[in-house]
Batch of 2 targets.
Target 1
Amino acid sequence: MNRQRISEVKMMSMSRRGFFERLYEVHAGGDLCATLSFDSVFGGGATGLFGGDSWTFKRTGFFATRVTVRGATSEFDDAVFENRRWSHGGALTFPDGRKYSASAGKWAKGLQFLTETGEAVISFHSRGSFNTAVDIEVMRPSPDLPLLLLLGCYLVAVMLEESASSAAATVAAMG
């Protein structure tokens, strides 16, 4: 899928490929349009591919987490996402000053990117008993849509994995 076609697509879905693999695929209809692959079993780094574009995502920090976004061959950040954990969201900032805000649903159920004027661009909503699948809706075209798609997939995948880890720890503590 190319940059022009993604703006024409309204619905996509993300799913994890295999139980032990940290590889996620995004499909539009029956077509594979993007992938997100984590660098290791426990690490926070990942690479997202969309068409001919590739970005790396690296999470840093504990209480004030940030995610740096870089072109696969770049030494400089293309954008930085700063998580605002207590307000259920965050902000994506580009070096030229452009910004998108992110609002996250409670219990790792959703995420949405909004323009500076508050217009929704893309949203992610997990479904299924173990939140293993994610519905993605494109609400408006944006030149940043491929990056927003992959960053959203990264953030949702991390939220889902952390949610599953917390649930497993709770069950283990009760047992």
Target 2
Amino acid sequence: MTATPLDRMHTPSIVVIPPSIRPFWNKFTASLGHDPSDHFYEAFHFDDNAQSADELAALVLAGKKRATAALVWAYESEGKPIPKPGDLSVVTLFSGEPVCVIETRDIKIVPFSEVDEDFAATEGEGDGTLVYWQRAHTAFFGRECQRLGREFSVRAPVVCERFAVVFRGTDRTEAQSGSGGAPAAGP
């Protein structure tokens, strides 16, 4: 499912780490030995409900979910730039509790109908098939389009983001910096 921002504050020249995740971010930066705050993108939870958001965060921690998808229209409506490789985000539970830091590794924008089986499997949801991905994302994107005043179609532009976990709050030994080490989860 797509990512939903909590209190993202990011502009090209000023980065503000939300106070709610600052202690978690400080543990991450301490594990690196330097402050990568200039690469901070957002703190967010997946999906639009607590049960799914928390389940998706657990899939990320388990290494099964290594990608996410969002409508380009959602970024546009929020005036938010599309993430780029090297961006760092804090994944939270629906409640806002941080669970890990992910690094964006790859971004592709394709029509919904062109999302492929490999991406669906990398997203790690349900049974990992493209059929499941299409069904789940048609429902989610339909709700999102309704909120945005848009009509969903198979031509809707989708941001396909692949990421790697670079820090787990419960195990600082898994922290790596960008390309400086193997990711905790594959690309």
